Every structure is written in C-alpha cells, then in structure tokens.
Task: inverse folding
C-alpha cells in the first residue's frame, strides 16, 4: 500500500470534508470563506493552472501581495500541482521585485491590485490580478504533488547580499504544523488565530496557515496597525496570535488610555514572538499586561524552521534565552573545526529534524555552505547552559573582532535594552588600523531623553567588560532596516566608516 502524500492542503481538505459550512478565514474588507468555499476556489485555481495557464510539475509562479484571502488559495492550489510559489515581499522596490522574479524563473506572476506598481514594470511574464475572475476550466487531473516537492520559495531578507530563494517542501511545512500544535497548544479545530505577520515570510505563512490545516479559523489583517490589533484582541474572538518584537513595541507605544481600556479583555491562550530577540524588559511588559502562562519566544529561520522555544513558565526564569530544542529537533553547537563545544561556550548553531528546508533555489554553493550532512546552519552563534537551554549570542557575520578578541554585538544590545532612555540600538564594527575593528553603536532614544554619549558609556561600565564598551556612539532617528524589518548593519558600518 502506498501512503497518500502529506501536503500542506491535506489537513485543510480533511477539515472541509468534516465541516464544509464552518468559516475558515476572514479578512477585513474582503469578507469570509467557509471551508467549502475555500476548497472550491482551490479546485478552480488548480484547474485553471493546468488547463488555461499550462502549468506543470516543477514550474514556479510568483505572488506579490499583502495578506489577503487569495494568498492561501493561490499557494494551496498551485502547490498541489507540484508548482512552487515564490512569495515576494510586497514592501520591496520594483527593481528588487524584478530581480527576485528573474531569479525564481517564474513566467506567471499573481499580484494584488495594491501592488500593481511593482508588477507592471515586469517584462517577459504573464501578469494576473488576484482580483481577476478565475477562468473556467475542466477539472484538474488527479495527479498531485509529492510531499518532497517544493510548495513555496520565500526569499531571505538579504541583509548581506542579494536575497536567496529558500525551497520548502510540503512535508517540511506539514511536519512544522504538527510540531506547532503540540508545542503551542493553540492549533486545533477549535482554534481562532489572528494573523498579522506578512505571509510572504516563512514564519508569517506558517503561523497563519496552521489553523486551516487543523480545521480552525484564521482572521487575517492585511496590514499591521497597533490599535486595530489591540482592539481585536480585546474583543475576545482570537485565542492565539503571532507577533514580532517591533509589533509589541508599537502596541505598548499606544496611549495609556487605549492600553488601560483594553487591559484584561482577551481570551488569548498563546502569544508567540519570533524573528528577532525580544528584549527582557519587553517580555516583562507583555507578561504584566496580558498575564502569565501565555508568552512563547521562538527562535528559528526560514531554512531551519522552528529550532527552539522558550515556554511561558521559563520566560522570567531564563533571561535572554530562546529555550530548549523544539519538538523533534536536535541542536549542535560547534567550533570552527566542527567540534561540539562545551556548555557556556559560544559555537555555531546547527539543527536537524523533519522541518528543514530543501536547499537554496538555484544556489548549490550557498546550500553547500549551510548544510553539513543532515544538519543546517544559518550562521548564528549560541551558547547552551547546563539545562540544555539555548542563548543566541549573535550572527556569525555580525561578529566583531577587535584587538584579536571576538565581540558579539547582540550581547551589548541586550544590555543597552535595559537603559531607560534607549528605544532601539544596533552595535556594529568599523575598520580600525590599530584594533582591526572598532566597536560602534547607533542608538534611537525615547522621546524627550537628553542622554549624552558619555552618559551611555559611563552606564555601561561594570555592566559589560571594558573592551566591549562601544568606542563611538551615534544617535539616530531610526535604524536602517530592510523590508523584513531586520537592521542593515552593513549600511551602518559603511556609513560610519566613511564618516
């Protein structure tokens, strides 16, 4: 007997068979879809893909759109045909979008009407609006994708170079869903999730699509607005939410009147944070406002999937920690020679498990650099404590070597986060003829803060080793970030090296 392939739509279709009239998803301004309606549109798109647009197994289509109902329909339909969907960040510039479309080899590009300015300059491709009627076509053939086929190709943020396409298989993502259900306890047929993170990113898609895999409901926000999110939470509909640190910052920057009016009015079971480090003061604010027993801080990557999770009961016990290994995941911390390092010693983090990527699209060189056997690394440096809990030290490529000593910027940024006047920070290195690299910091201050560089330097004394104290401090209105919200340290380094 041959087992049916495990696809991202396997659970969705099973849910539709059980509860066809149940609302599967909603989006402000677009209405709702029942499971029967959702499957009907997936089937229609799949048929049109095969018979009208001539898509075949191994092809790639591109999708440029904010969060919307059509997003999950398009990815579901074409991935069942064995056609991968390159999910492109709609916040990129037109030249950046063109570069990714070219790299993906997509000949068919779906775009949301709000993204027309990004799609229309594209040449040599067929453009289709997500609002266009689905062409009528005979039913699609019964041939479906294999679970090892690539279902989506999200692109990395490209903080150090051109973005790379990350191939994710059906099986990898489906196994991620099962692990998430076990770990977060908020994904089931009874779940009601609020999806606000962009679906074009691996995490945003996974956390938003998982409710459909298990027969729950997902409410989609096309764009993040802090007050809208807080009021929706206060309405008591959703029991789970995923946000990144900048979302939480915006939430708690709302007026005290709004925050107080919404305090305690929720039925959340799970709050998940990911994408970058959640400063300890912010963790404490989240727990104080929403209550204990809810917050999970997850570490992972598009390539490695979810690698660790710090559970609610550890949030205040383990500071600046991302937790032990995730479900079905193994972790190895290695030195430059590939040897396992002892506890409390920095090492490059490798992980393995059923949720890894399949490699970089058309980049065997980059794949070879990231993959060692069945282990994957994205270049993060971490330490492990005696209980097996992981602490991310920094990105390998962000490490500063000053006077022959390895300095990890994230360690300094974590300390700076405790300063009452500092809202945001980035520590980076610039070339120095005497030291090799000199440590610099760019700081964003809270409104009204009159702090001077000398005050920061003095405050750091005794909190970190003297050699880690930045030699130069720059005050800026905002840190340069890419479309994914990640700080562009190479831009800072270049700017202040030139200065």
Result:
């Amino acid at each position: 007997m041959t087992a049916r392939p495990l696809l991202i739509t396997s659970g969705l279709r099973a849910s539709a068979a059980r509860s066809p009239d149940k609302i599967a998803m909603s989006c402000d301004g677009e209405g709702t879809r029942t499971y029967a309606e959702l499957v009907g549109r997936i089937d229609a798109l799949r048929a049109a893909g095969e018979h009208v647009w001539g898509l075949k197994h191994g092809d790639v289509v591109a999708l440029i759109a904010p969060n919307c109902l059509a997003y999950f329909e398009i990815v579901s339909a074409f991935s069942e045909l064995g056609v991968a969907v390159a999910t492109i960040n709609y916040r990129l510039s037109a030249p950046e979008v063109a570069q990714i479309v070219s790299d993906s080899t997509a000949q068919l590009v779906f775009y949301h009407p709000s993204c027309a300015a990004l799609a229309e300059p594209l040449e040599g491709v067929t453009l289709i609006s997500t609002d266009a009627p689905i062409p009528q076509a005979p039913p699609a053939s019964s041939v479906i994708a294999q679970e090892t086929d690539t279902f989506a190709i999200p692109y990395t943020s490209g903080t150090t170079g051109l973005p790379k396409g990350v191939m994710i298989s059906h099986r990898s993502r489906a196994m991620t869903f099962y692990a998430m259900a076990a770990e977060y306890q908020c994904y089931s047929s009874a779940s009601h999730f609020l999806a606000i993170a962009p679906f074009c990113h691996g995490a945003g898609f996974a956390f938003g699509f998982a409710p459909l895999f298990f027969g729950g409901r997902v409410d989609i926000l096309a764009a993040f607005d802090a007050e809208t999110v807080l009021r929706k939470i206060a309405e008591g509909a959703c029991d789970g939410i995923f946000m990144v640190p900048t979302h939480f910052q915006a939430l708690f920057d709302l007026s005290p009147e709004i925050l107080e009016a919404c305090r305690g009015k929720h039925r959340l079971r799970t709050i998940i944070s990911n994408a970058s480090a959640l400063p300890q003061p912010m963790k404490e604010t989240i727990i104080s406002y929403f209550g204990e027993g809810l917050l999970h801080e997850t570490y992972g990557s598009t390539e490695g999937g979810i690698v660790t999770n710090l559970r609610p009961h550890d949030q205040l016990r383990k500071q600046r920690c991302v937790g032990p290994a995730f479900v079905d995941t193994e972790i190895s911390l290695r030195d430059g020679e590939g040897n396992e390092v002892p506890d409390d010693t920095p090492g490059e983090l490798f992980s393995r498990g059923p949720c890894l990527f399949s490699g970089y699209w058309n980049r065997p060189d980059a794949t070879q650099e990231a993959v060692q056997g069945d282990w994957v690394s994205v270049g993060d440096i971490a330490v492990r404590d005696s209980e097996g809990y992981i602490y991310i030290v920094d990105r390998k490529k962000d490490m500063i070597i000053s006077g022959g000593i390895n300095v990890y910027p994230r360690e300094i940024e974590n300390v700076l986060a405790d300063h009452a006047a500092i809202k945001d920070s980035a520590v980076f290195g610039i070339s120095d003829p005497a030291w090799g690299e000199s440590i610099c910091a760019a700081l964003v201050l809270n409104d009204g803060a009159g702090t001077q560089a000398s005050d920061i330097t003095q405050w750091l004394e005794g909190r970190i080793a003297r050699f880690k104290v930045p030699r130069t401090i720059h005050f800026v209105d905002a840190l340069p970030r890419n479309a994914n919200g990640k700080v562009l340290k190479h831009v800072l380094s270049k700017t202040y090296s030139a200065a």
Q: What stands out?
A: The longest helix spans residues 35-51. Residues 324 and 388 are 6 Å apart (CA to CA). The longest strand covers residues 422-432.
